UniProtKB/TrEMBL annotation:
The lineage of its organism: Bacteria, Pseudomonadati, Pseudomonadota, Gammaproteobacteria, Cardiobacteriales. The keyword Nuclease applies. Gene3D superfamilies: 3.10.310.30, 3.90.1640.30. GO terms for molecular function: exonuclease activity. The keyword Ubl conjugation does not apply. It comes from the Bacteria. Residues 467-568 form the RecJ OB domain. Keywords: Exonuclease, Hydrolase, Nuclease. This is Single-stranded-DNA-specific exonuclease RecJ. Residues 353-447 form the DHHA1 domain. InterPro entries: DDH_dom (IPR001667), DHH_sf (IPR038763), DHHA1_dom (IPR003156), RecJ (IPR004610), RecJ_OB (IPR041122), SSDNA_exonuclease_RecJ (IPR051673). SUPFAM superfamilies: DHH phosphoesterases.
Amino acid sequence: MKIVRRKPQHQFCAEQHSSLLQEVLKNRVIEDESALDLTLRGLYPYHSLSNIDVATDMIVKALTSQKEILIVGDYDVDGATSIALAIRVLREFGALNVRYTVPHRILDGYGLSRSLVQKILRNPPDLLITVDNGISNVDGVELARENGIDVIVTDHHLPPEILPNANAIINPNLVGDQFPSKALAGVGVIFYLLLSVRAKLMEIGYFGEYPAPNLAKYLDIVALGTISDLVPLDANNRKIAQQGLLRMRQGVMIAGIHALIEVSNRKRENLSTSDIGFGVAPLLNAAGRLDNMQVGIELLLTDQAEEALAIANELFTMNEERKTIEHEMRETADSILTDITLSKEDLPLSICLYDESWHQGITGIVASRIKEQYYRPTFIFAYDNEGLLKGSGRSIRGIHLRDLMSNVARDHQGLIETFGGHAMAAGLSIYEDNLHKFEKAMSEEIARFIEMTPNSDELLSQKIYSDGELPATGFNLGFADEIKLAYPWGQQFPEPIFDDAFEVLDYRILKGAHLKFTLRKPQSPMTFEAMAFFQAHQLVDNVKEIHCAFKLDVNEWRGNRNLQLIIDYFEPIQ
């Protein structure tokens, strides 16, 4: 690991913020000064999305003739919020026959699979709209079309070479699509389509003398899905995320999100992207990982506070079970890694692990943990059925996972059954007999990519980017609060990180995995409590001084608020 200090990228000035935060913002990629504006002014219009007019006309026709509409989603938070948004808005538009379904992770696989379509055909709709899926479901879309169902695919995942034969596909990542942001989450894509439908309904006088529904009131749902899916927070997504967070902080949100915030023990008044990512989203995700996301979707659809709280508590219990399973899987994975004697000096180019006892719903989390520890593209597989394995892959900066899998599938016909995803995260299915062949093929593909990449020796070297040393005036609750609330921080717009050397006054290990330090700035009376999560393995006995990369945080306990450092990485100073 290497700590690298960021360099200024621009000279735009955000005068509404402190001078310290202004200096941090200069280290972020900002397209122009308007990108610092978090109001809805300047939100990209929907018109440039390919095929949006065709999809809009189809939905308007279905609404005006009361055709039956089925929304098909995914089993993660982006999928659940996409379904809830579509159902709520279409009902507000007057749809009387709109319902949803979501595939069962184990029984149906991903997206609009043939298995799921066969179930849908027992009670077929007139119009089927996918949300956060469908772009890779060529066979499922074809089966639906063959049986007289019109299909609109809304998705944000990278398209395969062969597109499904849908009536319309809305995806900003389609080749030739002119929409300025390629980073929309699935919930963002369906939000834009619904904006277009609203405009068309207004144009034809559908709402009569009544005001058209204001879709901005649903930004709490759109923000939840956008933040949870870890899409890049470009200027457009920052507006969506911040406006949704502001509504949540003001208590303007659906009952389900309010209940999730309460059960996750987060403070509504200063809710941040990290609160969503580490507190709220895991509860909702637990339903799709362990059982069926329908529980989470019903939470987002209810308007009854009491019912919402009951479902949120049920999700909390599921998430505790998920944590237990994840811990057991991680222990098994660590054991396997120990058995094959992985050393950081001689790591393979990719890590590929499988155990028949592992749960499909937790593979992505375990892959992320192992990738973070060893900094190699990592694939974790679990048994599906009849010799088939389902895998989750997580990648590192500069190595595009889906593109690599596409190349492996092209060069090794029949090796991968299905695959899809993004640059940093992807999923696939292979037969158990092909596991070692896949591992070998993937390592060869990564080696080929590295050989063709300039400065390839840097590619596998893990770096953490810092905003430099934090002045003494920055170690206070006011600056920590300012950072938390000023912007939605996330992918490609990272939360401020600083680096410095500290004396270690005390430390202890918590739950066998985390470290709690008491630190002091050298030649200074300032002392701080600091947490280093999942870094106990880094500890050196009797360490006296460390150099660390850290974030500012506020620890709230029994009404007291204290500054706390969250250590992303540390190394002992000899």
